[in-house]
Specification:
4-stranded antiparallel β-sheet, kelch repeat, repeat, Neuraminidase, F-box_dom, mainly beta, 7 helices
């Protein structure tokens, strides 16, 4: 009897046996098998077990899909309805039948907010700040993990901001500007480190609080400024050296529409006279016409997002035009060739921002 008790005590003290991801397969082989499952079925994999759900949120999973060239990019559009209700839609560009789908409810605190910023880093989407008729500018930040398929609150901004500017560069997000802020807040960058889930503030005397647009390009944060005397100019901020560089005045034309970087090339949608896709020619420091988009297909105001060499022009009610910049080449006198999508939505929505997430 005592011998039996000793064996039982010994068994209880031994570490719990590892349960493989797939019975009779090593975890390495199981990950190789599961990584081949298309992204549209990942929500099913998450429901199988806790270990599978943890796997889909791991770096091993992402690196395995990347090594095998199995990654898929989905497009997310943050929208607002005519009733001033915020919502998020998602598009799978790899699907046989292109169709925007409602992602699901965003955090309830953000449903009625205005002046929020929407950015993407890695596999995550971020909603920053904002305000409403019932609350002042908030410092709250919410994150959507596309692998886990859920929203959660993350570290708050050092300063509550509304109608401000942001740019994602590397593994950091740079935030500045906004309404109703002190002069100290307007002359600093609030910088979010995604890996550490931490914020830091960097005072920058050279940061002029008349920024009307910011975006990341070639390892720098580009800013476009407009003064009270209606003078526009552009600058570039290098985070590594914390230095500024004055840019050609031609760069300021990107205020005429949204911008996006596709295959390392900066594009801009000029919405002043119809819709024209422009390309920034670095050597001559000027915008060059790539081509016009057919009237009736776009529904301005539009937002841009890139997947590889394809630029997606997303307009009112999520009307979408896809242009492959490598196939088209320059068509200064012609219309760009592409595909289009005009979804039938249950409500009238305007697109605030579009981002791409690759898994």
């Amino acid at each position: 009897m005592s011998s039996s008790r000793n064996i039982r005590a010994e068994y209880d003290q031994t570490p719990q046996h590892h349960i493989p991801l797939i019975h009779s397969l090593s975890d390495d082989l199981a990950i190789l098998c599961l990584s081949r499952v298309p992204r549209k079925y990942h929500h099913v994999l998450r429901c199988v077990s806790k270990s599978w759900r943890a796997l889909l949120c791991s770096e091993d999973w992402l690196s395995c899909r990347s090594r095998q060239n199995l990654t898929e990019t989905w497009i997310y559009a943050m929208c607002v309805s005519k009733d001033r209700v915020n919502c998020c839609y998602v598009l799978d560009p790899n699907a046989l039948s292109l169709n925007w789908k409602l992602l699901g409810p965003i955090p309830p605190q953000c449903i009625r907010r205005e002046g929020m910023s929407f950015e993407a880093l890695g596999r995550k989407l971020f909603l920053f700040g904002g305000c409403s008729c019932h609350e002042k500018a908030t410092d709250e930040v919410y994150c959507y993990d596309a692998c886990a398929g859920k929203w959660e609150e993350v570290a708050r901004m050092p300063t509550g901001r509304c109608y401000f500017l942001s740019a994602a560069l590397g593994d950091k997000i740079y935030v500045t500007g906004g309404l109703g802020l002190s002069s100290v807040a307007l002359s600093c960058w609030d910088i979010y480190d995604c890996r550490l889930n931490e914020w830091s503030s960097h005072q920058d005397p050279s940061l002029i609080p008349d920024i009307v647009k910011s975006f990341a390009f070639e390892g720098k944060v580009y800013t476009v400024h407009s003064t009270w005397v209606d003078r526009q100019y552009a600058r570039a901020y290098d985070p590594s050296s914390r230095s500024w560089e004055d840019l050609s005045r031609q760069m300021t034309s990107c205020c005429h529409g949204p911008t996006v970087v596709s295959s390392g090339i900066l594009h801009m949608l000029d919405e002043t006279h119809g819709t024209r896709l422009m390309t920034w020619e670095k050597e001559n420091e000027e915008w060059v016409l790539l081509g016009r988009l057919a009237q009736g297909l776009t529904n301005p105001p539009c937002q841009l997002v890139a997947v590889g060499s394809c630029v997606y022009v997303v307009g009112h009610n999520l009307s979408t035009v896809v242009v492959d910049t490598e196939i088209n080449g320059a068509r200064p006198e012609g219309v760009l060739v592409g595909s289009s999508l005009a979804p039938k939505l249950g409500s009238d929505v305007s697109v605030m921002s579009c981002k791409a997430v690759t898994i």
